């Protein structure tokens, strides 16, 4: 064999089955012995993989873990949390229906609904999930799906989703729950009756700010449909990102236990600070949804604390500039404590009136609490606020 041939002829080796860490199948395509083998695979007559846009073993290992954590029968990984949201919506409603969106929700979900789905014939309607009559009235109309969050972004609202889902199902309205803030460690929305649960794996499940992925989980038939959406629309993830998420997910319980405990300690410490007007954390008795959170959430209340400062936006700017340990990051879910500003970042898709309606003001910051020593996090905020 000539050198020019040898240099590209990497030998295929048998894949071992006893690797402690699942291998990365960092390949875009798989080889076959003949055309008949490809035809059988693509027709579903034999298992396997052909082209990674349609499936890859590394995707499936991660999807299997998330399905297990969520108590789902199946899951599908997508290239981002927004990709997972889109796939979930198109799976639940392949033809246009109304999108009933929780009044407190991530601004990116609103942007997706308005910029992408509304022009395709999916009109968006707000619904107050804390008002049973409003939920019933919204569901009693033309076909719809309901979009909610287990813990809302950014103010930690926890709606009585078990009751909301029963009300929606009574009107034949399927429900999708974004479980990013709670993670399966604190909540399993499928046990409340949700039809599909989604995550931004970029956040707590990945946990290290080094990947971008999403996932949706639910019944086998819905996930088969979602897999087609992800593959056909090109929402396919990258094998290496999936491997990173799998590595991060294996420490999820340890990280969420610590971060949740730290968040409660920080919320309690800031609650009485003279520079703080209000602390939003569902683990505080002062939070409006504390009783519901105690009922629906397990093993704590999550790692997100939001704070309204007395001095408004200018006080936020001064605090951010004086923090030494905590960095300003327009995301969340890292092992390190970070903070963001919903009005200028995560919720800028909302109008000023819509922001005001859910108390997203210039004075409010969202803190994603990490796994450092709680005393160090608290001291950093105290020093900056002083």
SSE layout:
Layout: H1 3-6, H2 35-42, H3 57-70, E1 74-78, H4 81-92, E2 98-102, H5 107-117, E3 124-127, H6 132-139, E4 144-149, H7 161-170, E5 175-178, H8 183-186, E6 196-200, E7 214-218, H9 220-233, H10 239-249, H11 252-271, E8 276-280, H12 290-296, E9 304-309, H13 312-322, E10 327-328, E11 338-340, H14 352-357, E12 364-368, H15 374-385
Helix pairs in contact: 3-10, 4-9, 6-7, 11-15, 13-15
Please describe the biggest sheet, giving its number of strands, its sense, and whether it closes into a barrel.
Answer: 7 strands, mixed
Strand order of the largest sheet: 1-7-6-5-4-2-3
Percent in helix: 25-40%
- Structural class given helices, strands, pairing? alpha/beta
CATH class call of the largest domain: Alpha Beta
User: So, CATH architecture of the largest domain?
Assistant: 3-Layer(aba) Sandwich
Describe the structure.
The chain is α/β, with parallel strands linked by helices and 386 residues long. It folds into two domains: 35-249, Aspartate Aminotransferase, domain 2 (3-Layer(aba) Sandwich); 252-385, Aspartate Aminotransferase, domain 1, CATH 3.90.1150.10. Helices cover 39% and strands 14% of the residues. The strands form two sheets. Strands 1-7-6-5-4-2-3 form a seven-stranded mixed beta sheet, sandwiched between helices. The protein has a five-stranded mixed beta sheet with strand order 8-9-12-11-10. Strand 5, helix 8 and strand 6 (196-200) form a beta-alpha-beta unit. It starts with a helix and ends with a helix.
